[in-house]
Amino acid sequence: ASRSPSGGPLLTPSQSLGGAGGRRSGYITIGYRGSYTIGREAQADAKFRRVARITVCGKTALAKEVFGETLNESRDPDRPPERYTARYYLKFNFLEQAFDRLSEAGFRMAACSSTGTCAFGPEQGGPADDKIWTSYTEYVFCRD
């Protein structure tokens, strides 16, 4: 079997570190939609809206371990622990809080991705000099 630099066996993210005090390895993806308005003086006048909802994608058992009671399971209430879901979201709206919980649980950021598009401007009935932009951002965290 392959060994890690510390001498322990290498595990894939789908394997579990069983035993007392063991932690499951795996991935959790955090996502959110955002929007902001930029006027003519873009650098001085960007107006950001707060994050409306932070979504959670991953195995149910991992999500519950990390987020506990702050995980809203109402959109997928009876999901088995070892199954994946992308239908959970958090009961709080602060990305920093989600990142802190993931870090405390031994997760590290593996990747991130963001997209942005102009939702509408004056020509689509938006504010006179402003353009409203929307974005979607995902952060992928893993624990070996």
TrEMBL record:
Domain of life: Eukaryota
GO (cellular component) term, any one: neuron projection
Protein localization: Cell membrane; Cell projection, Neuron projection
Metal-binding listed as a keyword: no
Keyword Oxidoreductase applies: no
InterPro entries reported in the protein's UniProt record: H1_KCTD8_12_16
Keyword line: Cell membrane, Cell projection, Membrane, Phosphoprotein
The KCTD8/12/16 H1 domain, residue ranges: 26-143
UniProt GO BP: regulation of G protein-coupled receptor signaling pathway
Region ranges (Disordered): 1-22
Record protein name field: KCD12 protein
Record organism: Bucorvus abyssinicus
Gene symbol of the encoding locus: Kctd12_1
